Amino acid sequence: xxxxxxxxxxxxxxxxxxxxxxxxxxxxxxxxxxxxxxxxxxxxxxxxxxxxxxxxxxxxxxxxxxxxxxxxxxxxxxxxxxxxxxxxxxxxxxxxxxxxxxxxxxxxxxxxxxxxxxxxxxxxxxxxxxxxxxxxxxxxxxxxxxxxxxxxxxxxxxxxxxxxxxxxxxxxxxxxxxxxxxxxxxxxxxxxxxxxxxxxxxxxxxxxxxxxxxxxxxxxxxxxxxxxxxxxxxx
Length: 235
Ligand SMILES: [Fe+2]
Known about the structure:
This protein is an all-alpha fold. The chain has nine helices and no strands. Fe (ii) ion (FE2) binds at residues 67, 70, 92, 138, 142.
């Protein structure tokens, strides 16, 4: 996989709608958290590690689904404008190969005899590190190259509509799962904007469920208080 970009040519948002920002922050933070846990795990202790493996599979499921959302909504929209997405499509295919290989390594750890579990865990750790390294470079390219291509070809309302198509296609539990990784990863102003829009547009019981299950558990008391203040939530 080749990534060609210069770190000094990272574009400014300039007030434009950022379709990649929040979800990519969420994937980066959740990926780094998992990598840290995989590095510190005692892979011979099955009882403990099984929770980590569950979280890893959950992350890979979300990552695989994110790739499909981009293929089906962003790449198709660019293709309709005659913009090639061949490089990104190839990178997404590489991701799909990585998802299969990581699942094989997880199964190898599950099936390994006790004495081989630590070695299987080390392989899984290294493979996951290589995968997120690739994904970080890929997401960087999307934000510095593809983002500006979207701005050139669509206005903000059209980009927002693409994002709404993605969100509208998600079953509620998956939406919640994406929110759980995004909310702790974005900054206070981004949280207030995202949840402020949801408070205005979503039915109150859905908004409350998001606060209870996807927002509150991932934030410190201080961050939650700041958000509650911004959103004027009842105490
Ligand atoms: Fe992507």
